[in-house]
Amino acid sequence: MKYCEIFVKSALVRSKLEYTDFALNPYRGCEHQCVYCYSPYVMHLPLEEWKNKVYIKVNLPTVLNQEIRRKSGFISIGTVTDAYQPAEKKYEITRKSLEVLLKKNMPISILTKSNLILRDMDLIKKFQEAHIGVTITTLDEELRRKMEPNAAPIDARFSVLDNFKSKAITYAFIGPIIPQYTTDYLEDIIRKLAKLKVKYVIFDRFRWKKDMQLPRYLESKLDKIEISQMDIKVRAAYLSRKYGLRYSILW
Question: In the CATH scheme, what architecture does the domain 2-250 have?
Answer without folding.
Answer: Alpha-Beta Barrel (3.20)
